C-alpha cells in the first residue's frame, strides 16, 4: 500500500477535474456531480484505510446534514478497535486474520458504542511526530496475541489484555478523557456524536454476490471482516443504481474495493477495466474499451480471489470522460501528490466489477431497493 505524507490541515475540499492533469493523459474529465467533503489526508505507513475512508464519509455526512465542517479523529477508531480485534482473535483460537485491516462497519460500531472525537482531541501521533507509522505497532500486537495462544495465557484470566492496552498507549496514545472541550463547549464522545447528528443506525453495508440470496443480509466472507458484520446483498444492476442515486442526491459512499488491477493507478488518477490487456507502453497513452461487468463475472473474480478487499476509499461525486463514459470521483487516503490532489476518476465499469462492499446512508438507497431490503 502506498505511503505518502500526512496532510494535517483541514478544510472544505474543492475538487478540480483538470488540476495538474498529465499532458500525456488520454483522458479529459468533466465533473457532473460534486458533493462537499473534507480535506484529503494520508494514512501513511498504516493499514488503516478503513478508518480514514469511513471518517471522511462521516465528515461529509456532517456537512450534508447542514453542520459545520469538522476534522474527525481516525485514530480514535483504531485505538478502540484493536483491543476488540485482539479479543476476537483469541476467542476464535487464532483461526481468523489478525492485522491492521478492517471495514467501514468497524468505524460505525465505534460510533454506536463509544462515539466520536475531533482530530484535535485525539491525533494518534506520538509526541513530536507528524506522520503515522504502525509497522512496529502491528508487529507487537500480532506477536502478543500469538503468544497468548501459544502459552495459553487466556487461561490465567485477562491480564494479557493489559499488554495490548499498554502497546496501544505507547504507540498511539492513551485515550482522551471522558469529557473534552471543543469550540468552547464540553462534550463526551457520545454527546459529540449526537451534536453532529450522526446516527449509526442510519448506515447500511451493501454488496453484490450470487452465492447468497439477493435482498437478504449475510456475513461477507473476506478476511478483514473480523467483526462478522452483515451486508445486504443486491444485484449488480442495483449496485450501480445505488451509487448513482446516492451521488445524484447529495450523498457520498464509503467504498471497499480491489485495487490490485493494473488499471487502478493512483499516479494517473484513474481506474479502468480494459477489455483486453494493453501493451505496457499503451496503458496510459490511449483510452481503451472496457469490460462490460456481469453478475457472473463479478462472482467468478471473487471466487478466484481475483477480487479481494484491498483498500477502502470515499466516493464523492461523478464525472464523464470525453467519450461520455461515467466515472466516480473517489477520494483516496494516500496524500495529495497525484494529478487530482489525491482523488481518482474510477470508471463505472471498474466500480461494478471490483466493488467488495459499500456503506451508505439508508436514505441514499432507491426506494424500491430500500423496500426489497426491508429497510425503514
Helix percent reads 25-40%
Sheet-strand content, in percent, reads 15-25%
Biggest sheet features: 11 strands, mixed
Structural class: alpha+beta
Set down the secondary structure blueprint.
Layout: E1 30-34, H1 49-64, H2 75-91, H3 104-113, H4 135-150, H5 159-171, E2 180-182, E3 185-187, H6 189-195, E4 203-207, E5 217-219, E6 230-233, H7 236-248, E7 253-257, E8 264-265, E9 270-271, H8 295-303, E10 311-320, E11 326-331, E12 343-347, H9 348-354, E13 355-361, H10 367-373
Parallel strand pairs: 4-6, 9-12
Antiparallel strand pairs: 1-10, 2-3, 4-13, 5-6, 7-10, 7-13, 8-9, 10-11, 11-12
Helix pairs in contact: 1-3, 2-3, 2-5, 4-5
Quick synopsis:
The chain is α+β, with helices and mostly antiparallel strands.
What would the keywords be for this entry?
alpha+beta; 376 residues; globular
Structure notes:
The protein is an alpha+beta fold and 376 residues long. It has one domain (30-373): Cysteine proteinases (Cathepsin B, Chain A, Alpha-Beta Complex), CATH 3.90.70. Helix content is 31%, strand content 16%. The protein has helices at residues 49-64, 75-91, 104-113, 135-150, 159-171, 189-195, 236-248, 295-303, 348-354, 367-373; strands at residues 30-34, 180-182, 185-187, 203-207, 217-219, 230-233, 253-257, 264-265, 270-271, 311-320, 326-331, 343-347, 355-361. Strands 1, 4, 5, 6, 7, 8, 9, 10, 11, 12 and 13 form an 11-stranded mixed β-sheet that branches. A hairpin with a 4-residue loop joins strand 8 and strand 9. Helix 2 packs antiparallel against helix 5. It is globular and about 60 Å long. It starts with 29 loop residues before the first strand and ends with a helix. Residues 1-11 have low confidence and may be disordered.
Amino acid at each position: 500500500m502506498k505511503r505518502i505524507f500526512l496532510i494535517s490541515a483541514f478544510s472544505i475540499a474543492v475538487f478540480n477535474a483538470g488540476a495538474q492533469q498529465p499532458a500525456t493523459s488520454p483522458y479529459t474529465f468533466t465533473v457532473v456531480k460534486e458533493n462537499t467533503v473534507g480535506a484529503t489526508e494520508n494514512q501513511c505507513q498504516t493499514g488503516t484505510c478503513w478508518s480514514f475512508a469511513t471518517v471522511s464519509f462521516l465528515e461529509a455526512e456532517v456537512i450534508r446534514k447542514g453542520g459545520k465542517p469538522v476534522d474527525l479523529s481516525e485514530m480514535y477508531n483504531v485505538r478502540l478497535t484493536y483491543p476488540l480485534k485482539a479479543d476476537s482473535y483469541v476467542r476464535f483460537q487464532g483461526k481468523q486474520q489478525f492485522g491492521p485491516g478492517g471495514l467501514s462497519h468497524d468505524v460505525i460500531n465505534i460510533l454506536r458504542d463509544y462515539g466520536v472525537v475531533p482530530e484535535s482531541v485525539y491525533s494518534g501521533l506520538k509526541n513530536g511526530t507528524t506522520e503515522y507509522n504502525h509497522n512496529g505497532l502491528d508487529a507487537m500486537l500480532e506477536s502478543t496475541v500469538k503468544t497468548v495462544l501459544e502459552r495459553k495465557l487466556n487461561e490465567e484470566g485477562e491480564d494479557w489484555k493489559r499488554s495490548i492496552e499498554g502497546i496501544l498507549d505507547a504507540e498511539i496514545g492513551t485515550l482522551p478523557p471522558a469529557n473534552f472541550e471543543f469550540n468552547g463547549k464540553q462534550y463526551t464522545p457520545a454527546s459529540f456524536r449526537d451534536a453532529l447528528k450522526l446516527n449509526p443506525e442510519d448506515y447500511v453495508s451493501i454488496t453484490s454476490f450470487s452465492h447468497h440470496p439477493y435482498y437478504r443480509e449475510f456475513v461477507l466472507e473476506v478476511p478483514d471482516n473480523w467483526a462478522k458484520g452483515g451486508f445486504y446483498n443486491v444485484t449488480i444492476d442495483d449496485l450501480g443504481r445505488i451509487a448513482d442515486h446516492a451521488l445524484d442526491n447529495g450523498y457520498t459512499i464509503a467504498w471497499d474495493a480491489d485495487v490490485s488491477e493494473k488499471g487502478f493507478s493512483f499516479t494517473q488518477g484513474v481506474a479502468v477495466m480494459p477489455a483486453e490487456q494493453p501493451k505496457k507502453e499503451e496503458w496510459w497513452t490511449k483510452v481503451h474499451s472496457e469490460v462490460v461487468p456481469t453478475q457472473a463475472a463479478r462472482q467468478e473474480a471473487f471466487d478466484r480471489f481475483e477480487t479481494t478487499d484491498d483498500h477502502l476509499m470515499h466516493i464523492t461525486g461523478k464525472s464523464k470522460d470525453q467519450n461520455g463514459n461515467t466515472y466516480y470521483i473517489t477520494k483516496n487516503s494516500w496524500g495529495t501528490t497525484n494529478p487530482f490532489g489525491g482523488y481518482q476518476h474510477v470508471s463505472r465499469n471498474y466500480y461494478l466489477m471490483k466493488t467488495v462492499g459499500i456503506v451508505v446512508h439508508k436514505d441514499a438507497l432507491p426506494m424500491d431497493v430500500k423496500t426489497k431490503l426491508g429497510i425503514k
